[in-house]
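SEQUENCE-TO-STRUCTURE ENTRY
===========================
Question of interest: how does this chain fold, as expressed in C-alpha coordinates?
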Amino acid sequence: MTNVAFSRREDVETAEPVPTSNSAIVAAAGGTAQTQQGVGGALQVIMTYLPTEIVALYTSVSTAIESKPGSETAFSAHWLAFYICLIMTPMTVWLMYAGRVRLADRPLPLSWRRWPIWEMTASTLAFAAWAYSMPGSPFEHLPGFYSRGVAAVVLPTTATFIALLAPILQKPLKG
Protein backbone atom coordinates (compact mmCIF):
# COMPACT_ATOMS: atom_id res chain seq x y z
CA MET A 1 0.00 0.00 0.00
CA THR A 2 2.71 2.49 0.90
CA ASN A 3 4.76 1.37 -2.12
CA VAL A 4 1.81 2.27 -4.35
CA ALA A 5 1.55 5.67 -2.66
CA PHE A 6 5.30 6.18 -2.96
CA SER A 7 5.20 5.38 -6.68
CA ARG A 8 2.68 8.23 -7.12
CA ARG A 9 5.16 10.82 -5.87
CA GLU A 10 6.11 13.36 -8.52
CA ASP A 11 9.75 13.47 -7.38
CA VAL A 12 10.35 9.73 -7.72
CA GLU A 13 10.83 7.72 -10.89
CA THR A 14 9.73 4.12 -10.57
CA ALA A 15 10.10 1.24 -12.98
CA GLU A 16 6.59 0.01 -12.29
CA PRO A 17 3.46 1.95 -13.20
CA VAL A 18 0.93 2.93 -10.55
CA PRO A 19 -1.74 0.20 -10.39
CA THR A 20 -5.02 1.55 -11.72
CA SER A 21 -7.22 -1.53 -11.85
CA ASN A 22 -8.40 -4.17 -9.41
CA SER A 23 -6.13 -6.84 -10.92
CA ALA A 24 -3.15 -4.45 -11.00
CA ILE A 25 -3.63 -3.60 -7.32
CA VAL A 26 -3.81 -7.31 -6.46
CA ALA A 27 -0.71 -7.99 -8.55
CA ALA A 28 1.14 -5.17 -6.78
CA ALA A 29 0.19 -6.85 -3.51
CA GLY A 30 1.68 -10.13 -4.73
CA GLY A 31 -1.56 -11.87 -5.67
CA THR A 32 -1.83 -14.73 -8.13
CA ALA A 33 -3.87 -14.88 -11.32
CA GLN A 34 -6.54 -16.86 -9.44
CA THR A 35 -6.92 -14.23 -6.70
CA GLN A 36 -7.14 -11.32 -9.09
CA GLN A 37 -10.70 -12.05 -10.15
CA GLY A 38 -14.12 -11.60 -8.55
CA VAL A 39 -14.67 -11.50 -4.81
CA GLY A 40 -11.28 -13.10 -4.20
CA GLY A 41 -9.60 -10.19 -5.95
CA ALA A 42 -11.71 -7.69 -4.03
CA LEU A 43 -10.77 -9.34 -0.74
CA GLN A 44 -7.11 -9.33 -1.75
CA VAL A 45 -7.46 -5.58 -2.40
CA ILE A 46 -8.91 -4.94 1.07
CA MET A 47 -6.08 -6.93 2.62
CA THR A 48 -3.66 -4.75 0.66
CA TYR A 49 -5.10 -1.63 2.25
CA LEU A 50 -5.49 -3.07 5.77
CA PRO A 51 -2.26 -2.69 7.79
CA THR A 52 -1.32 -6.03 9.33
CA GLU A 53 0.02 -4.19 12.39
CA ILE A 54 -3.49 -2.94 13.17
CA VAL A 55 -5.07 -6.34 12.46
CA ALA A 56 -2.62 -8.01 14.83
CA LEU A 57 -3.17 -5.41 17.55
CA TYR A 58 -6.96 -5.48 17.32
CA THR A 59 -7.09 -9.28 17.18
CA SER A 60 -4.82 -9.60 20.22
CA VAL A 61 -6.76 -7.08 22.26
CA SER A 62 -10.14 -8.53 21.24
CA THR A 63 -9.00 -12.02 22.19
CA ALA A 64 -7.80 -10.79 25.57
CA ILE A 65 -11.13 -9.03 26.16
CA GLU A 66 -13.08 -12.16 25.20
CA SER A 67 -11.50 -13.96 28.16
CA LYS A 68 -14.12 -12.21 30.35
CA PRO A 69 -17.24 -12.25 28.16
CA GLY A 70 -20.54 -10.72 29.13
CA SER A 71 -19.25 -8.14 31.55
CA GLU A 72 -19.94 -4.43 31.23
CA THR A 73 -16.19 -3.84 31.27
CA ALA A 74 -15.70 -6.21 28.32
CA PHE A 75 -18.35 -4.34 26.31
CA SER A 76 -16.63 -0.98 26.93
CA ALA A 77 -13.20 -2.47 26.29
CA HIS A 78 -14.34 -3.84 22.90
CA TRP A 79 -15.48 -0.38 21.83
CA LEU A 80 -12.33 1.25 23.20
CA ALA A 81 -10.15 -1.23 21.29
CA PHE A 82 -12.13 -0.59 18.11
CA TYR A 83 -11.87 3.21 18.35
CA ILE A 84 -8.18 3.18 19.26
CA CYS A 85 -7.36 0.92 16.31
CA LEU A 86 -9.62 2.95 14.01
CA ILE A 87 -7.73 6.12 14.93
CA MET A 88 -4.36 4.37 14.72
CA THR A 89 -5.02 3.01 11.22
CA PRO A 90 -4.44 6.20 9.19
CA MET A 91 -1.61 7.14 11.55
CA THR A 92 0.05 3.78 10.89
CA VAL A 93 -0.31 4.23 7.13
CA TRP A 94 1.27 7.67 7.35
CA LEU A 95 4.14 6.38 9.50
CA MET A 96 4.82 3.51 7.08
CA TYR A 97 4.72 5.92 4.15
CA ALA A 98 6.96 8.44 5.92
CA GLY A 99 9.44 5.66 6.65
CA ARG A 100 9.45 4.68 2.98
CA VAL A 101 9.99 8.32 1.97
CA ARG A 102 12.89 8.71 4.42
CA LEU A 103 14.53 5.51 3.14
CA ALA A 104 14.58 7.17 -0.29
CA ASP A 105 16.36 10.21 1.21
CA ARG A 106 13.38 12.48 0.60
CA PRO A 107 12.00 15.02 3.10
CA LEU A 108 9.28 13.85 5.46
CA PRO A 109 5.75 14.51 4.15
CA LEU A 110 4.71 16.87 6.95
CA SER A 111 2.18 18.88 4.94
CA TRP A 112 -1.17 17.11 4.57
CA ARG A 113 -0.98 17.82 0.82
CA ARG A 114 1.93 15.40 0.67
CA TRP A 115 0.15 12.66 2.62
CA PRO A 116 -1.18 9.48 1.01
CA ILE A 117 -4.77 10.51 1.75
CA TRP A 118 -6.33 7.80 -0.43
CA GLU A 119 -4.40 5.01 1.31
CA MET A 120 -5.13 6.48 4.75
CA THR A 121 -8.86 6.69 3.97
CA ALA A 122 -9.09 3.29 2.27
CA SER A 123 -7.24 1.59 5.12
CA THR A 124 -9.57 3.16 7.69
CA LEU A 125 -12.63 1.98 5.74
CA ALA A 126 -11.07 -1.46 5.34
CA PHE A 127 -10.39 -1.72 9.08
CA ALA A 128 -13.93 -0.65 10.00
CA ALA A 129 -15.43 -3.22 7.60
CA TRP A 130 -13.08 -5.93 8.82
CA ALA A 131 -13.82 -5.18 12.50
CA TYR A 132 -17.57 -5.15 11.79
CA SER A 133 -17.30 -8.55 10.10
CA MET A 134 -15.20 -10.22 12.79
CA PRO A 135 -16.77 -12.59 15.31
CA GLY A 136 -16.95 -10.87 18.69
CA SER A 137 -17.26 -7.46 17.04
CA PRO A 138 -18.51 -4.70 19.34
CA PHE A 139 -21.18 -4.04 16.72
CA GLU A 140 -22.83 -7.34 17.75
CA HIS A 141 -24.08 -5.55 20.86
CA LEU A 142 -26.05 -2.96 18.89
CA PRO A 143 -29.55 -4.36 18.43
CA GLY A 144 -31.00 -3.71 15.00
CA PHE A 145 -27.64 -2.57 13.61
CA TYR A 146 -25.75 -5.84 13.33
CA SER A 147 -26.63 -9.16 11.82
CA ARG A 148 -24.38 -12.00 10.71
CA GLY A 149 -25.94 -11.87 7.26
CA VAL A 150 -25.06 -8.19 6.88
CA ALA A 151 -21.60 -8.80 8.33
CA ALA A 152 -20.97 -11.46 5.68
CA VAL A 153 -21.69 -8.89 2.96
CA VAL A 154 -19.95 -5.84 4.45
CA LEU A 155 -16.36 -6.97 3.88
CA PRO A 156 -16.64 -7.99 0.20
CA THR A 157 -18.82 -4.95 -0.54
CA THR A 158 -16.29 -2.60 1.05
CA ALA A 159 -13.47 -4.38 -0.77
CA THR A 160 -15.23 -3.94 -4.11
CA PHE A 161 -15.99 -0.29 -3.31
CA ILE A 162 -12.33 0.40 -2.47
CA ALA A 163 -11.13 -1.44 -5.57
CA LEU A 164 -13.45 0.57 -7.81
CA LEU A 165 -12.51 3.91 -6.23
CA ALA A 166 -8.74 3.36 -6.16
CA PRO A 167 -8.05 4.20 -9.82
CA ILE A 168 -10.31 7.25 -9.60
CA LEU A 169 -8.97 8.73 -6.36
CA GLN A 170 -5.26 8.00 -6.69
CA LYS A 171 -3.54 11.24 -7.60
CA PRO A 172 0.11 12.15 -7.92
CA LEU A 173 1.68 13.06 -4.60
CA LYS A 174 3.82 16.15 -4.27
CA GLY A 175 7.45 15.44 -3.52
Remarks:
- Helices lie at 2-7, 22-28, 38-49, 52-66, 72-103, 117-133, 148-169.
